[in-house]
Design brief:
Number of helices: 17
Bound molecules: flavin-adenine dinucleotide
CATH superfamily of the largest domain: DNA Cyclobutane Dipyrimidine Photolyase, subunit A, domain 3
Shape: globular
Structural class: mainly alpha
Helix content: 40-55%
């Protein structure tokens, strides 16, 4: 076994329990922060398995639903390490903002994914059923399938290998794999997930694919797997359409005067952005994940609403609950955290014309972090990476 170790930083078995509370996320951040420097850079590519997540933060479920923010994670890392020592970790955190901003500026990629998914469903057969049941006979792939279903999490490297084997060895439509991930991951995110699958397939950085290699898998899983029969070439996928760049929609300041707050799973701490004394609060959920993923989000939202004695409303169509909540309160303004491209955004966009026709205004408030980072996500990650020193200064995290 070649577990890489730095003096005094030997990985200690460290399974993670993803309790859906801000306190649990902050506790994990404190536990991980000492490792966010050179130890992270040296060992982050190793997937030691679900019983040992000591070399990565495993913060993604909390960050995804904004129980812990990127700003807080960056602050904790930079408080313990010099910018040079935690450069790699800081970059990884900015990958999230990159993907969010990129999809926000090319929303047709999300629509094309949904259309492709509808078409791909017609191709579903025994090979797909074997893949999602972990019955392909490829040792690592089957193990990751079970791990994903049972824990709602996979290591980044495992996600890359999994997506590559799905696309190039099993030759299944990438959209079905992306949907499988989005359904089961506790951190399932329309931007990070869709764009990472497209990246592996050669659609994000056009023509550049990711090939999963047996020796690389054996090495970075510490010999836990020895896969055979993997594809040896990864021809890039192509698509007919171009995805034009669109301006980022405007964000609005929290308004003065009577309003209701709408909390949603895109930002479970979103109330912090809002007027402190709203005239009512409610929360909406779309139940589109696995039981594990839905439970994580529902419990997080329940907790966020508990201070006001409310419980989440679960619905596949938000228009009616939004109109009813506004009618009950007699308030003409609903304020919510900005919802980036994805199912929650589609629900709000679909409801807005009906709300407007009834004289109800929907105000979407974006976090300053997103407004700062997203405009730099127009093309490749390199463009944003160059801006990291400036962004850290603007975020008040460096001189
Ligand atoms: C096919 C595929 C699908 C993915 N789907 C998702 C998804 O649905 N949701 C999601 O949050 N991430 C996704 N990722 C990115 C990445 O795998 C996870 O963010 C990371 O594994 C989470 O583990 P961690 O918190 O220990 O990350 P760490 O390595 O500790 O990084 C810290 C934080 O930075 C962010 N981050 C790190 N790497 C990436 C990355 N490559 N892209 C975007 N953000 C990153 C995450 O918020 C993460 O919590 C996907 C990657 C691939 C290859």
């Amino acid at each position: 076994m070649n577990t890489p170790s730095l003096p005094g930083l030997e990985p200690v078995p460290q399974p993670v329990e993803w309790a859906p509370t801000r306190a649990a996320g902050l506790a994990r951040l404190s536990q991980f922060a000492p490792q966010a420097g050179r130890a992270y850079a040296a060992t982050r590519n190793y997937d030691y398995g679900p019983g040992n997540r000591s070399n990565i933060s495993a913060l993604s479920p909390w960050i995804r639903h904004r129980l812990v923010t990127e700003q807080e994670v960056l602050t904790a890392a930079l408080a313990r390490h010099s910018p040079a020592a935690c450069e790699k970790f800081v970059q990884e955190v900015f990958w999230r903002g990159y993907f969010k901003g990129w999809l926000e500026q090319r929303p047709s990629v999300w629509t094309a994914y949904l259309n492709g998914l509808d078409n791909a469903r017609y191709t579903i057969g025994a090979d797909y059923q074997d893949a999602i049941a972990g019955r392909t006979g490829i040792d690592c792939f089957d193990a990751w399938t079970h791990e994903l279903r049972e824990t709602g999490y996979l290591h980044n490297h495992a996600r890359m290998w999994f997506a590559s084997i799905w696309i190039f060895t099993l030759r299944l439509p990438w959209q079905l794999g992306a949907e499988f991930f989005l359904h089961h991951l506790l951190d399932g995110d329309p931007a990070s997930n869709t764009l990472s699958w497209r990246w592996v397939a050669g659609l994000h950085t056009k023509g550049k694919t990711y090939l999963a290699r047996p020796d690389n898998i054996a090495r970075y899983t510490n010999g836990r797997f020895d896969p055979t029969g993997l594809a040896t070439v990864a021809e890039p996928l192509t698509e007919p359409e171009d995805h034009p760049l669109r301006p980022i929609p405007p964000s609005f300041a929290p308004p003065e005067g009577p309003c209701m707050l709408l909390l949603n799973a895109e930002d479970l701490c979103g109330a912090a952005l809002m007027p402190p004394d709203p005239d009512g609060v409610f929360g909406l959920l779309t139940p589109d994940g696995s039981v594990l993923a839905n439970d994580f989000v529902a419990a997080g939202l329940e907790k966020a609403l508990a201070d006001w004695g409310q419980t989440p409303i679960t619905s596949n169509n938000w228009t009616q609950p939004l109109v009813e909540a506004a009618a009950r309160s007699g308030i003409r303004r609903i304020v919510t955290a900005y919802t980036p491209i994805g199912p929650a955004r589609s629900q709000l966009d679909a409801a807005e014309p009906t709300l407007m026709s009834q004289g109800i205004e929907l105000v979407r408030v974006r976090r300053a972090y997103d407004s700062l980072v997203w405009p730099h996500a127009k093309r490749g990650f390199f463009g944003l990476k160059k801006q990291i020193p400036n962004l850290l200064r603007n975020l008040g995290l460096s001189d």
